[in-house]
Amino acid sequence: MATIVLDRVADALAALKNEHLAQSLYDEGKVIMDGVLLTLHGEEHRKRRVLEFRVFRRSFFRYYETEVFPRALAEILGPEIAKGRTDLVEFGYRITMNLTADFAGIDRPEKSARETEALLKIVKTFSEGATLVHSTRDKEEVRNEVRAALVEFDRLFLQPSIARRLDLIARFNRGEIAEDDLPRDVLTVLLRNEDKVDLPPDLLRREIAFYLQAGSHSTANSTVHAIHHVFEWLRDHPEDRERVLKDRLFLQRCVHESLRLHPASPVSWRRPVCPVSLSTGASAEPTDRIEINLWAANRQKDIFGEDADAYNPHRSVAQGYEPFGLTFGTGVHTCLGRDLDGGLVAKGDVDPANHQYGIITLLVGALLDAGARPDPDDPPELATYTERPNWGRYPVLFRR
To answer: What are 87's strand-pairing partners?
Structure first.
């Protein structure tokens, strides 16, 4: 087996869009990722993506930012501000888990600390299973933890959520409630369209678990990376402090720059489903692995500038390219939550009051508004359980 590395933007784009290259980064984590949307290929992937994309419409993202996010933020951030401190990694997981549960379709009827901790523990275990290829732990031990977490998730959260939605769907079919009264989430869409996709109970469970872990894991880590860069930028560029704190469009630029430097996964792997000729001129066989180096492509100097390895929210990007690079992918496996996390890229005249900023910018903005700053007596530490350069803990203090 040969490994073919692609680290230029043009070659990475061509590979990500190539219909003869199938996702393979998550093969190690099949215990949670087998058969879910991200790992499907071909017609089966297209049918499920079209179905689930009904949830991810732009109008829904706007509703999410203005209606769902403020409520979740108040529930999680308020008590942390009252304590005067928090750990950004834990905070990020808590709030993004709650947000992700809303669009995945997992109810939390109690809204209690006990319930939140139970789901948080499960979701973190799912995340470890999904990113198993980069785990530094014993892989079979992680798989066993994921299997146990799936059983607990099914009993405590998934089955009650399914039962409530099936009841609401039945009432809608009888004309007792309007369609707008149905939940706007992935689980409801799948339950209403069981005849259009083959989702046995174990696969439905993995599909919803995938949405829970993917949304919370990547968004939480991206939020911590982004605010870390903002802290460092303000330390070194105090002249930008007022703009960072008051100009949300500029803060979104700060977030996009961090997303460029920190794709959720530094690489993307593809497996040829047949002999393939790549844009580089190389040929790849089904036994080969195509490694798309997103980390390197996002630092290509002729696109992102001579200082592409550095963080610079004032960066000008070559025309035709996104400020966050290839972080959200492209082609059929473009991240469904791209606009939810990163918002819309501001182009031309933009009304700041009606712009879609994305959850990460809103989270970073809320933390800065609360006076968040690194704890000088408790420095942050990188995670040790994964090879990915994520933060393991990041203590901050709030303005009293």
So the answer is: 395
Global model pTM greater than 0.85? yes
Query: Phi and psi dihedrals of 129, rounded to 5?
Result: -70, -40
Position 228: which residue type?
A: H
Question: How many residues are given for the chain?
Answer: 400
Cα(35)–Cα(49) distance, integer angstroms:
13
Q: Strand, coil or helix: what is 331?
A: helix
Which amino acid makes up residue 128?
E
pLDDT tens for each residue of 332-363: 888 878 888 999 999 888 899 889 999 999 99
**CATH 2.40.440.10 correct for 26-264+298-397:** no
What are the C-alpha distances in Å from 315 to residues 233, 260, 318?
Answer: 13, 11, 10
Domain ranges of the chain: 26-264+298-397
Residues 323-338 pLDDT 10s: 999 999 988 888 878 8
d(CA 88, CA 396): 7
- Binning the chain into helix, strand and coil, the percentages to the nearest 5 are 55, 10, 35
In sequence order, which residues have a C-beta less than 8 Å from that of residue 176 and are 6 or more positions away?
none
